Amino acid sequence: MSLLSVVVPVFNERDNVAPLVQEIVSALDGRVPFEIIYVDDCSSDDTLAVLQALKMRVPQLRVITHQQQSGQSTAIRNGVKAARGAWIATLDGDGQNDPADIPKLLQAREAGQALVKLYAGWRVERRDTGSKRWASKWANAIRARMLADDTPDTGCGIKLFEREAFLDLPYFDHMHRYLPALMQRAGWQTLSVPVNHRHRTTGVSKYNNLGRALVGIADLRGVSWLIKRSRRTGVREL
């Protein structure tokens, strides 16, 4: 079996780091060769120190730190660039994604078609606040109408995708929210897989509904423009 790289972006998640790392190890140990890459986005707490201490006890753990705060999309991309595996699993660092779902995504990949390069988690039962669930439902409806990406939950942090296909996508801030549409634009197929979603038990959310909505409007317009301007064709060497 080929190596799987699990990429986890974090910012001020010092209390979530150790439990989540242990859950990842428990979910994957003995199932598949794996590495865990944490990308610290200049946390202002001691998240990085916790990671450095944990690295001494968990041989699969690698730690990358940004020199300046750059956001979740950049953290994910830098983790993917550093990854040694041909396939990448991503998780949010807040503990709301369940690492036990990674084997489910791997099983879906084994049963999937070669053209499917992204297996996206689908939080069927959200464990967020009512306002956050409402905002997400509204945003998903608008996104689906504009992008026609046939994805019920593009914002779920747990995903499995091919490293090479991901790095071939256009990069921009917040691109991680639009991976299904971007993969489809590149000519690949995507598949949504129902996954577990958990309450945040420690730390605080890094987003608010208004800020996410304002950024999302500009992003949607940009991704819609990219899709309309896309040109694809097969090639052959003579």
From TrEMBL:
Residues spanning the signal sequence: none
Keyword entries, A-Z: Cell membrane, Glycosyltransferase, Lipopolysaccharide biosynthesis, Membrane, Transferase, Transmembrane, Transmembrane helix
Keyword Transmembrane: yes
Domain Glycosyltransferase 2-like: 5-166
Domain of life: Bacteria
Keyword Oxidoreductase part of the UniProt annotation: no
Chain ranges passing through the membrane: none
GO BP term, example: lipopolysaccharide biosynthetic process
InterPro entries: Glyco_trans_2-like, Glycosyltransferase_2, Nucleotide-diphossugar_trans
GO molecular function annotations of the record: undecaprenyl-phosphate 4-deoxy-4-formamido-L-arabinose transferase activity
Any Gene Ontology CC annotation: plasma membrane
Protein's name according to its UniProt entry: Dolichol-phosphate mannosyltransferase
Biological source species: Pseudoxanthomonas dokdonensis
